[in-house]
Amino acid sequence: MTVRIEKVDEGNKQKIIDSLKSDVVKHVFAFYDIQYMPNYTTVHAAFENDKLKGYILIYTATDFPSVILECEADTVDDLIAYAPKNRFIMHAPPNLLPFIKKKLSDSKHYIENWMLVKKGEANFFTSELVRRLYSEEDASKFALLLSSRENRPAGTVENYMKFISKMPTYGVFFNNELVAYASSFLQLPQVWMIGGVYTHPNHRNKGYSTLATSAITKEALRNSEAAALFVRSDNYPAIRVYEKIGYKKIGKKLWVDVGTGLRP
Asked: What pTM did the predictor assign?
């Protein structure tokens, strides 16, 4: 059968969305970005007899383009041709690694665990040290906390104010200093995606990541059926934190770095 590649636009967008509805968690980024972030999203989809066989999505509202490749092995070559020419991060199923390495020979890759907790299955850890970030002062403390993070581009207080205004973010404060945070960067009725979990190096091993992740997970499960996150498969301390809250591994994903130097 012949595979047909279509660029997603207003004419075929609903057809794609209807196909992704069968597993919103699996296709969460495409399902969200196509509907709610169209100005930053370009998608090419592969069809065989009008059945969706896969897609490549390029999202450009981040420091480097973020690429989602979700397809069967026999359509990798057709779809990866639409990837950016340099510096981007790609997320893909692990079974596609041999095909990706063939096309992107200079790339580096990491394995991430994909974890999920459903409504009614979480264990919450509370503390008066934790609250949601909302003010310009919080944004300033957020910028200071993230300045301690290695291998990440520096941000401005203005940018972080925009971030916490749009993305629910919870922080742990110790002696009026923001020492840890966790946020949700995507919210749907079916699932909230949790990310950016980070604790200042001087305040680790004190349970602060557990408190921050618990707080954002609690809000997620008040508003959706599940919360999900990705964590590098060799980050055992973080995995233990998430398991304690109730997250369970549901699969794996590749993080492929093409020229950015970023790691998960």
From this structure: 0.94
